[in-house]
Amino acid sequence: MQHDGSGRIWVEGLSKQFGPVAAVQNLSFVVEPGSVTGFLGPNGAGKTTTLRMLLGLVTPTAGRALINGRPYHQLGNPAQVVGAVLENEGFHPKRTARNHLMVYAAAIGVPDQRVDQVLGLVGLSPAAGRKVGGFSLGMRQRLALATALLGNPQVLVLDEPANGLDPEGIVWLRTFLRSLAREGRTVLVSSHLLSEVEQTIDQVVIISHGMTRYYGSLDQLRSSQTSRVLVQAADANALVKALSEAGYTQVEALPDGRIAVAGATRQQVGDVAAKASIALYGMDEDRADLERLFFQLTTPQYAAPPPGYGQPPTGGWAYAPPPGQPPQSPYQQSPYQQQGPHDGWGGQR
Ligand SMILES: Nc1ncnc2c1ncn2[C@@H]1O[C@H](COP(=O)(O)OP(=O)(O)OP(=O)(O)O)[C@@H](O)[C@H]1O
Protein backbone atom coordinates (compact mmCIF):
# COMPACT_ATOMS: atom_id res chain seq x y z
CA MET A 1 0.00 0.00 0.00
CA GLN A 2 1.24 3.52 -0.79
CA HIS A 3 2.26 6.09 1.81
CA ASP A 4 -0.87 8.20 1.45
CA GLY A 5 0.26 11.11 3.67
CA SER A 6 -3.18 11.36 5.19
CA GLY A 7 -2.28 10.87 8.84
CA ARG A 8 -5.07 8.31 9.06
CA ILE A 9 -4.81 5.37 11.44
CA TRP A 10 -6.36 2.24 9.96
CA VAL A 11 -6.82 -0.89 12.04
CA GLU A 12 -8.38 -3.83 10.26
CA GLY A 13 -9.15 -7.29 11.60
CA LEU A 14 -6.30 -6.97 14.08
CA SER A 15 -5.67 -9.93 16.39
CA LYS A 16 -2.95 -10.97 18.80
CA GLN A 17 -2.67 -14.30 20.53
CA PHE A 18 -0.15 -14.70 23.36
CA GLY A 19 -0.14 -18.49 23.79
CA PRO A 20 -3.58 -19.27 25.18
CA VAL A 21 -4.42 -15.57 25.73
CA ALA A 22 -6.43 -13.91 22.97
CA ALA A 23 -5.27 -10.38 23.84
CA VAL A 24 -6.84 -8.72 20.79
CA GLN A 25 -9.52 -10.25 18.60
CA ASN A 26 -10.48 -9.03 15.15
CA LEU A 27 -10.34 -5.35 16.03
CA SER A 28 -11.19 -2.73 13.39
CA PHE A 29 -11.40 1.04 13.58
CA VAL A 30 -10.24 4.16 11.77
CA VAL A 31 -8.97 7.42 13.25
CA GLU A 32 -9.21 10.42 10.96
CA PRO A 33 -6.84 13.40 11.02
CA GLY A 34 -8.12 16.39 12.97
CA SER A 35 -9.88 14.24 15.53
CA VAL A 36 -9.28 12.69 18.92
CA THR A 37 -10.35 9.09 19.37
CA GLY A 38 -10.64 7.52 22.80
CA PHE A 39 -9.49 3.91 22.96
CA LEU A 40 -11.20 2.61 26.05
CA GLY A 41 -11.41 -0.58 27.99
CA PRO A 42 -10.80 -1.93 31.47
CA ASN A 43 -7.42 -3.24 32.61
CA GLY A 44 -6.29 -6.14 30.47
CA ALA A 45 -8.73 -5.36 27.66
CA GLY A 46 -5.99 -5.29 25.03
CA LYS A 47 -5.38 -1.56 24.61
CA THR A 48 -1.62 -1.56 25.08
CA THR A 49 -1.20 -4.62 22.86
CA THR A 50 -3.17 -2.89 20.10
CA LEU A 51 -1.14 0.31 20.37
CA ARG A 52 2.09 -1.67 20.41
CA MET A 53 1.00 -3.45 17.20
CA LEU A 54 0.27 -0.06 15.64
CA LEU A 55 3.77 1.07 16.62
CA GLY A 56 5.46 -2.03 15.25
CA LEU A 57 6.51 -3.31 18.68
CA VAL A 58 4.31 -6.41 18.61
CA THR A 59 3.67 -8.52 15.53
CA PRO A 60 -0.02 -9.15 14.89
CA THR A 61 -1.25 -12.71 14.69
CA ALA A 62 -3.70 -11.52 12.05
CA GLY A 63 -4.91 -8.29 10.49
CA ARG A 64 -3.19 -4.97 9.89
CA ALA A 65 -2.51 -1.73 11.73
CA LEU A 66 -1.55 1.08 9.36
CA ILE A 67 -0.54 4.71 9.61
CA ASN A 68 -0.65 6.72 6.39
CA GLY A 69 -1.59 3.47 4.68
CA ARG A 70 1.58 1.72 5.80
CA PRO A 71 2.73 -0.47 8.66
CA TYR A 72 4.96 1.41 11.13
CA HIS A 73 8.23 -0.13 9.96
CA GLN A 74 7.61 1.13 6.42
CA LEU A 75 7.11 4.76 7.43
CA GLY A 76 10.60 5.98 6.57
CA ASN A 77 11.32 8.43 9.40
CA PRO A 78 8.61 7.24 11.78
CA ALA A 79 9.34 9.77 14.58
CA GLN A 80 8.33 12.54 12.20
CA VAL A 81 5.09 10.78 11.31
CA VAL A 82 3.98 9.33 14.62
CA GLY A 83 4.79 10.30 18.20
CA ALA A 84 3.95 7.83 20.94
CA VAL A 85 3.66 7.77 24.69
CA LEU A 86 3.59 4.24 26.03
CA GLU A 87 3.10 3.11 29.61
CA ASN A 88 6.11 2.78 31.89
CA GLU A 89 8.50 4.75 29.73
CA GLY A 90 11.99 4.57 31.12
CA PHE A 91 13.89 7.81 31.70
CA HIS A 92 17.46 7.95 32.89
CA PRO A 93 17.00 9.33 36.42
CA LYS A 94 20.25 11.28 36.40
CA ARG A 95 19.55 13.07 33.15
CA THR A 96 17.82 16.43 33.11
CA ALA A 97 14.63 16.82 31.12
CA ARG A 98 16.47 18.92 28.56
CA ASN A 99 19.30 16.39 28.23
CA HIS A 100 16.84 13.58 27.79
CA LEU A 101 15.17 15.45 24.96
CA MET A 102 18.52 16.43 23.41
CA VAL A 103 19.48 12.76 23.14
CA TYR A 104 16.19 11.92 21.44
CA ALA A 105 16.36 14.98 19.18
CA ALA A 106 19.78 13.88 17.96
CA ALA A 107 18.56 10.33 17.42
CA ILE A 108 15.68 11.39 15.18
CA GLY A 109 17.53 14.22 13.49
CA VAL A 110 15.65 17.28 14.70
CA PRO A 111 17.43 20.54 15.66
CA ASP A 112 18.20 21.33 19.32
CA GLN A 113 15.88 24.37 19.30
CA ARG A 114 12.96 21.99 19.07
CA VAL A 115 13.81 20.75 22.59
CA ASP A 116 12.99 24.09 24.21
CA GLN A 117 9.88 24.37 22.06
CA VAL A 118 8.45 21.06 23.23
CA LEU A 119 9.40 21.76 26.86
CA GLY A 120 7.36 24.95 26.56
CA LEU A 121 4.47 23.16 24.86
CA VAL A 122 4.06 20.72 27.75
CA GLY A 123 4.67 23.31 30.48
CA LEU A 124 8.01 21.89 31.61
CA SER A 125 10.27 24.86 30.82
CA PRO A 126 10.78 25.73 34.50
CA ALA A 127 11.92 22.14 35.20
CA ALA A 128 14.10 21.78 32.08
CA GLY A 129 17.35 21.66 34.07
CA ARG A 130 16.10 19.33 36.79
CA LYS A 131 17.00 15.65 36.97
CA VAL A 132 14.20 13.37 35.85
CA GLY A 133 14.73 11.11 38.88
CA GLY A 134 13.06 13.79 41.02
CA PHE A 135 10.06 14.23 38.72
CA SER A 136 6.53 13.42 39.82
CA LEU A 137 4.53 10.93 37.74
CA GLY A 138 2.64 13.84 36.19
CA MET A 139 5.90 15.55 35.18
CA ARG A 140 7.12 12.29 33.67
CA GLN A 141 3.91 12.10 31.64
CA ARG A 142 4.54 15.61 30.36
CA LEU A 143 8.13 14.71 29.50
CA ALA A 144 6.95 11.61 27.64
CA LEU A 145 4.53 13.80 25.71
CA ALA A 146 7.31 16.28 24.94
CA THR A 147 9.43 13.39 23.64
CA ALA A 148 6.56 12.24 21.42
CA LEU A 149 6.20 15.75 20.00
CA LEU A 150 9.88 16.24 19.18
CA GLY A 151 9.52 15.17 15.56
CA ASN A 152 6.43 17.39 15.10
CA PRO A 153 4.49 14.27 14.14
CA GLN A 154 1.23 14.17 12.26
CA VAL A 155 -0.09 11.32 14.39
CA LEU A 156 -0.05 10.91 18.19
CA VAL A 157 -0.60 7.60 19.94
CA LEU A 158 -0.89 7.99 23.70
CA ASP A 159 -1.31 5.10 26.13
CA GLU A 160 -3.02 6.27 29.32
CA PRO A 161 -1.43 9.75 29.21
CA ALA A 162 -3.62 11.01 32.06
CA ASN A 163 -2.24 8.51 34.57
CA GLY A 164 -0.52 10.40 37.33
CA LEU A 165 -1.81 13.82 36.36
CA ASP A 166 -3.58 15.89 38.99
CA PRO A 167 -6.96 17.46 38.14
CA GLU A 168 -5.26 20.59 36.86
CA GLY A 169 -2.98 18.46 34.70
CA ILE A 170 -5.98 16.60 33.31
CA VAL A 171 -7.67 19.82 32.26
CA TRP A 172 -4.40 20.91 30.68
CA LEU A 173 -4.07 17.60 28.82
CA ARG A 174 -7.64 17.85 27.55
CA THR A 175 -7.05 21.33 26.13
CA PHE A 176 -3.70 20.28 24.72
CA LEU A 177 -5.03 17.23 22.89
CA ARG A 178 -7.88 19.27 21.44
CA SER A 179 -5.42 21.86 20.19
CA LEU A 180 -3.31 19.13 18.54
CA ALA A 181 -6.42 17.85 16.75
CA ARG A 182 -7.33 21.40 15.70
CA GLU A 183 -3.93 21.63 14.04
CA GLY A 184 -5.04 18.70 11.90
CA ARG A 185 -3.22 15.96 13.79
CA THR A 186 -4.59 12.49 14.39
CA VAL A 187 -4.81 11.67 18.08
CA LEU A 188 -5.47 8.22 19.51
CA VAL A 189 -5.58 8.15 23.29
CA SER A 190 -6.21 5.14 25.51
CA SER A 191 -7.77 5.14 28.93
CA HIS A 192 -9.52 2.75 31.27
CA LEU A 193 -11.84 5.54 32.39
CA LEU A 194 -14.43 7.07 30.11
CA SER A 195 -14.83 10.11 32.36
CA GLU A 196 -11.14 10.83 31.90
CA VAL A 197 -11.46 11.44 28.16
CA GLU A 198 -15.17 12.09 27.71
CA GLN A 199 -14.73 15.82 27.18
CA THR A 200 -11.73 15.40 24.89
CA ILE A 201 -12.77 12.87 22.29
CA ASP A 202 -14.75 12.95 19.07
CA GLN A 203 -15.24 9.24 18.73
CA VAL A 204 -14.67 6.22 20.87
CA VAL A 205 -13.59 2.63 20.44
CA ILE A 206 -14.57 0.60 23.48
CA ILE A 207 -13.00 -2.82 23.87
CA SER A 208 -13.27 -5.58 26.39
CA HIS A 209 -11.48 -8.94 26.36
CA GLY A 210 -9.78 -7.86 23.14
CA MET A 211 -13.06 -7.37 21.28
CA THR A 212 -14.86 -4.25 20.09
CA ARG A 213 -17.92 -3.46 22.19
CA TYR A 214 -18.67 -0.08 20.69
CA TYR A 215 -17.23 2.01 17.89
CA GLY A 216 -18.76 5.33 17.03
CA SER A 217 -19.37 8.84 18.25
CA LEU A 218 -20.03 9.64 21.87
CA ASP A 219 -23.21 11.42 20.82
CA GLN A 220 -24.46 8.20 19.27
CA LEU A 221 -23.60 6.33 22.44
CA ARG A 222 -25.41 8.93 24.54
CA SER A 223 -28.51 8.78 22.37
CA SER A 224 -28.66 5.01 22.72
CA GLN A 225 -28.80 5.19 26.48
CA THR A 226 -31.26 2.84 28.01
CA SER A 227 -33.43 4.12 30.79
CA ARG A 228 -35.19 2.59 33.75
CA VAL A 229 -38.43 3.45 35.40
CA LEU A 230 -38.09 3.72 39.17
CA VAL A 231 -41.39 3.02 40.81
CA GLN A 232 -42.69 3.14 44.37
CA ALA A 233 -45.58 0.71 44.73
CA ALA A 234 -47.90 -0.08 47.64
CA ASP A 235 -47.08 -3.75 47.10
CA ALA A 236 -43.70 -4.14 45.38
CA ASN A 237 -43.85 -7.95 45.22
CA ALA A 238 -47.25 -7.87 43.57
CA LEU A 239 -46.02 -5.33 41.04
CA VAL A 240 -42.93 -7.42 40.22
CA LYS A 241 -45.21 -10.42 39.64
CA ALA A 242 -47.64 -8.42 37.51
CA LEU A 243 -44.79 -6.95 35.46
CA SER A 244 -43.30 -10.38 34.95
CA GLU A 245 -46.65 -11.75 33.76
CA ALA A 246 -46.84 -8.84 31.33
CA GLY A 247 -43.39 -9.74 29.97
CA TYR A 248 -41.31 -7.11 31.79
CA THR A 249 -38.65 -9.18 33.46
CA GLN A 250 -35.73 -6.71 33.73
CA VAL A 251 -36.62 -5.70 37.23
CA GLU A 252 -34.41 -4.86 40.19
CA ALA A 253 -35.36 -4.18 43.81
CA LEU A 254 -33.61 -1.04 45.05
CA PRO A 255 -32.44 -0.62 48.65
CA ASP A 256 -34.87 2.29 49.16
CA GLY A 257 -37.86 0.01 48.54
CA ARG A 258 -38.51 1.14 44.98
CA ILE A 259 -38.20 -1.16 42.04
CA ALA A 260 -36.33 -0.35 38.84
CA VAL A 261 -37.85 -1.57 35.60
CA ALA A 262 -35.79 -1.58 32.40
CA GLY A 263 -37.28 -2.00 28.95
CA ALA A 264 -40.60 -0.38 29.81
CA THR A 265 -41.99 3.15 29.67
CA ARG A 266 -43.67 4.90 32.60
CA GLN A 267 -46.99 4.47 30.88
CA GLN A 268 -46.47 0.72 30.42
CA VAL A 269 -45.55 0.29 34.09
CA GLY A 270 -48.54 2.42 35.11
CA ASP A 271 -50.90 0.38 32.94
CA VAL A 272 -49.66 -2.91 34.41
CA ALA A 273 -50.08 -1.55 37.95
CA ALA A 274 -53.57 -0.23 37.21
CA LYS A 275 -54.66 -3.53 35.68
CA ALA A 276 -53.42 -5.39 38.77
CA SER A 277 -55.04 -2.81 41.09
CA ILE A 278 -51.70 -1.90 42.68
CA ALA A 279 -51.43 1.64 44.00
CA LEU A 280 -48.35 3.58 42.87
CA TYR A 281 -46.91 6.41 44.95
CA GLY A 282 -44.47 7.75 42.40
CA MET A 283 -42.47 7.08 39.28
CA ASP A 284 -39.20 8.53 37.99
CA GLU A 285 -37.13 7.91 34.92
CA ASP A 286 -33.48 7.06 35.46
CA ARG A 287 -31.39 7.60 32.35
CA ALA A 288 -28.13 5.67 32.35
CA ASP A 289 -25.10 7.94 32.40
CA LEU A 290 -22.16 7.36 30.09
CA GLU A 291 -19.98 5.87 32.80
CA ARG A 292 -22.60 3.25 33.54
CA LEU A 293 -23.00 2.49 29.84
CA PHE A 294 -19.25 2.05 29.61
CA PHE A 295 -19.37 -0.30 32.55
CA GLN A 296 -22.21 -2.28 30.99
CA LEU A 297 -20.35 -2.53 27.70
CA THR A 298 -17.16 -3.82 29.26
CA THR A 299 -18.51 -6.13 31.93
CA PRO A 300 -19.19 -9.61 30.57
CA GLN A 301 -22.37 -10.30 32.52
CA TYR A 302 -23.91 -7.16 31.05
CA ALA A 303 -22.47 -7.23 27.60
CA ALA A 304 -22.65 -9.66 24.75
CA PRO A 305 -21.06 -8.19 21.64
CA PRO A 306 -23.80 -7.24 19.21
CA PRO A 307 -23.73 -9.00 15.84
CA GLY A 308 -21.37 -7.34 13.42
CA TYR A 309 -19.15 -5.74 16.03
CA GLY A 310 -15.44 -6.15 15.63
CA GLN A 311 -15.82 -6.97 11.96
CA PRO A 312 -13.21 -5.69 9.53
CA PRO A 313 -14.10 -2.57 7.60
CA THR A 314 -15.74 -3.21 4.29
CA GLY A 315 -16.84 -0.81 1.57
CA GLY A 316 -17.31 2.73 2.87
CA TRP A 317 -17.11 1.69 6.49
CA ALA A 318 -14.09 3.86 7.28
CA TYR A 319 -16.11 6.99 6.71
CA ALA A 320 -19.36 5.71 8.13
CA PRO A 321 -18.61 3.64 11.19
CA PRO A 322 -21.12 0.97 12.04
CA PRO A 323 -23.90 2.37 14.16
CA GLY A 324 -22.98 2.01 17.80
CA GLN A 325 -25.57 0.49 19.99
CA PRO A 326 -24.92 -0.85 23.42
CA PRO A 327 -26.14 -4.35 24.02
CA GLN A 328 -29.27 -4.87 26.03
CA SER A 329 -28.66 -4.63 29.72
CA PRO A 330 -30.53 -6.91 32.08
CA TYR A 331 -30.07 -4.45 34.98
CA GLN A 332 -29.99 -7.35 37.36
CA GLN A 333 -27.28 -5.90 39.51
CA SER A 334 -26.42 -2.29 40.00
CA PRO A 335 -23.18 -1.46 38.15
CA TYR A 336 -22.54 1.17 40.81
CA GLN A 337 -21.85 -1.66 43.24
CA GLN A 338 -19.02 -3.01 41.11
CA GLN A 339 -16.64 -0.17 40.52
CA GLY A 340 -13.59 -1.65 42.22
CA PRO A 341 -11.04 -1.36 39.42
CA HIS A 342 -11.98 2.25 38.65
CA ASP A 343 -9.85 4.14 41.08
CA GLY A 344 -10.24 7.63 39.70
CA TRP A 345 -7.85 10.09 38.14
CA GLY A 346 -4.21 9.60 38.58
CA GLY A 347 -4.69 6.42 40.57
CA GLN A 348 -1.96 3.86 40.41
CA ARG A 349 -2.90 0.51 39.00
N1 LIG B 1 3.81 -10.14 26.24
C1 LIG B 1 2.72 -10.75 26.70
N2 LIG B 1 2.69 -12.07 26.94
C2 LIG B 1 1.59 -12.70 27.38
N3 LIG B 1 0.41 -12.08 27.61
C3 LIG B 1 0.36 -10.75 27.40
C4 LIG B 1 1.50 -10.01 26.94
N4 LIG B 1 1.14 -8.71 26.80
C5 LIG B 1 -0.16 -8.65 27.18
N5 LIG B 1 -0.63 -9.86 27.54
C6 LIG B 1 -2.00 -10.18 27.96
O1 LIG B 1 -2.89 -9.68 26.99
C7 LIG B 1 -4.05 -9.14 27.59
C8 LIG B 1 -4.21 -7.69 27.19
O2 LIG B 1 -3.19 -6.91 27.82
P1 LIG B 1 -2.96 -5.37 27.51
O3 LIG B 1 -1.78 -4.93 28.30
O4 LIG B 1 -2.92 -5.16 26.05
O5 LIG B 1 -4.30 -4.73 28.10
P2 LIG B 1 -4.62 -3.22 28.48
O6 LIG B 1 -6.01 -2.98 28.03
O7 LIG B 1 -3.56 -2.32 27.94
O8 LIG B 1 -4.56 -3.26 30.05
P3 LIG B 1 -3.97 -2.19 31.10
O9 LIG B 1 -4.94 -1.05 31.11
O10 LIG B 1 -3.97 -2.96 32.37
O11 LIG B 1 -2.60 -1.82 30.62
C9 LIG B 1 -3.89 -9.34 29.08
O12 LIG B 1 -4.53 -10.54 29.42
C10 LIG B 1 -2.38 -9.48 29.24
O13 LIG B 1 -2.08 -10.25 30.38
Automatic annotation (TrEMBL):
What's a Gene Ontology MF term here? ATP binding
Positions of the region Disordered? Answer: 304-349
Pro residues biased stretches:
320-329
Give the UniProt keywords, A-Z.
ATP-binding, Nucleotide-binding, Transport
Q: Which PROSITE patterns match?
A: ABC_TRANSPORTER_1, ABC_TRANSPORTER_2
Which InterPro entries does the record match to this protein? AAA+_ATPase (IPR003593), ABC_transporter-like_ATP-bd (IPR003439), ABC_transporter-like_CS (IPR017871), P-loop_NTPase (IPR027417)
| Listed SMART domains | AAA (SM00382)
- Name it: ABC transporter ATP-binding protein
